[in-house]
User: Fold this.
Amino acid sequence: MRPFKEIKANYHFTKEDEEILIELKPAMEKRVDRVVEAVHQWINTTESARKIFKDESLKLHVMNLIKDWFIRLFSGKYDNTYYDYLIRIGQKHESVGVEPHYLIRALNIVKNSCIDVLCDEIELCSERERYFIAINKIIDINLDIINSSYIEEEIKSYSIAYIARGKILRLGEIFSQITSTVLVMALILLTGAVIYLCGRDIYQIFTGKIEQNVITALGSVLILWVMLELINTELSHLRGGKFKISVFVGVALVTTIREVMIATLKHDSIEFIGALVASVLVIGIIFWLVKKTEEDRR
Ligand code: HEM
Assistant:
């Protein structure tokens, strides 16, 4: 909040204005009920404002608060205690959900009522103007402080929500990083296993039936190649790149192709080989569709 001194200076609120307001005190005290009644009537005829009050007693309580506030307007004491009092009003309105536009309208009604009082009390038009300028300044200062403190309070509550949201997001990010790292490690381990598989198949080329073992080793190499692609995808995802589902579908495709190769070499039943070929076909179509979508997005 800006200092009270600065706010008063912005409105050119002088000692003379203070004296004018003190002068008006007796007349305003006499008409306070009329002023509060005008605000009361506006609340009663404005549905959204009426709804703020759970019952009549709360409305009566607030009308009394407005009465006290109005009398203090002409007290001539505009010190830090008064400043804190206005700040509290803004904070309270924020906590009970009285939006600033209600206060703006209510104070507009108060200003109009003050003009009525001045018309009743002061005959000379030029005199009235002098009084009204002082009233205008103090009401605008009130509006400025109350609404500024309302906004400040609202920002505070938002920033708490923002802090909580930020913390949750950061927690989620850390969790995701840890999971991705574990995944990369698991992939490295699995790739190690595939390398072993490859090595064993290649070794068997020299020790067993050459054409059968060449095909099996080829299948293992294919899997190794896809595993490397999988690690690369995960690493680029960790560095902030896009996630490629096609690589995972690729793993399924290559594994099934390897199975077809092995089944053919082992002369498995035609139904089994047929089912494997159908699987390759279905996974192949899915792979093609996913890959195409990924390329279109790029
Ligand atoms: C002339 C304009 C107004 C003034 C000077 C004013 C003043 C006040 C004050 C002094 C308080 C008590 C603050 C505290 O507890 O520290 C208050 C509370 C409240 N005001 Fe206003 N008010 C005004 C307009 C309104 C309007 C237009 C509404 C509703 C449409 C409203 C609704 C309330 C409510 C619901 C409370 C909380 C009451 C409680 O729970 O104790 N006020 N107001």
